[in-house]
TrEMBL record:
Provenance organism: Solanum verrucosum
Region called Disordered, residue ranges: 266-289
Protein name in UniProt: UBX domain-containing protein
Keyword Nucleotide-binding: no
UBX domain segment(s): 304-389
Biased composition (Basic and acidic residues): 266-276
Cellular component aspect of the GO annotation: nucleus
Amino acid sequence: MASVPSSQDMLISSFLDIAVDQTVDTAREFLQATNWSLEEAIQRFFSGNNNGGAEAAAESFNYSPLIEENPTLWESDDVRLPLPVRREVLYGENSGLYEDEREQISSSTFGSYDNNTLSVLFRPPYELLYNGPFDHAKEAGAKRNRWLLVNVQSRSEFASDTLNRDTWANDIVAQMIENNFVFWQEGDHTEEGRKVCTYYKLDSRPVILVIDPITGQNMRSWNGMVQPETLLEDAMTFIDRTPLEYHSDLLRKQFDRLTHLDRIEEGTEEKEKEITSEEENDQNENTNTIYLPLPEEPNRSLIDKKMVCRIAIRLPDGRRIQRNFMKTDPIKLLWSFCSTQFEEAKTKAFRFRQAMPGPTKFWASNFWTCDSNLTFEESGLDNSVIALVMI
């Protein structure tokens, strides 16, 4: 049985992820010298305050041209390699004084990493961020009809850095944010960051929130490091409906409930007819649809696997179902299958879409309807993950 890595092994591995091209012995030396504090070990490694660490850092990140141009830099152990001046450019609305403030914040947050390369590795996603205070970001979300995605970080938590390195730098995550959200990021040591932490009673860092820009309500939250795949999957709810669509649905449900109460209290036949008519219109598309009988699921172990395709379907309630079909079966059987697995699909119309963001496939935009005569093989759906969406 494989042994489980110890906490010290994990710290050594994290150290080597940051200090590339270094040895395990070097990582252990710096970690032991700092009582196994990863952040302090990284700082000491790049600041050169322990046993020639500056020379190792310079060699690791190819600073030899600077040494050749300045041969006197290493004549004294007290003199460190000069660092290039670097300014980050913020994009978004309301640029001006707040841009200078954010630049100072960024310097404070990542100032402990004295190497330019490390700063680039963990740099915030400036190209995605809204440039302005929280209230302005919320107003921008309401104006653009987009949810407000908030990330409050802490410079004392390494997970904040890994979010920048792994999640916000992910191409699909970046595309999702650009197309569907207003993104605002702040440190909890700043005035704006503290204000958000207090208002939403945040007790851990880093934290990611989805805020309703119309009401300011916290709709969803994640704590700590969140992998790109998890964030993409969980955020699908907010891609399916914009804030205005969400509030429109709420108003419609409230109106239906009040209308229903009025009908009960007044007992008028007129209101009963109106409600009955509305319900019939909502269900008309599916009540007139006769689904194909669902054949027995093919067993991949008993027949040629090349003749079978497998489809996974994500339901609106969060469940994931899957089934085998013959490649020669019509895709109409997807409607037959889902109507047996999801109660709401028995009486209301529904459709399917891609489960992950990205370019829409040819079949999804042209031929994927309940009355399509395409087979699974013709549709290119083999081993696909799709999502059921109520109409």
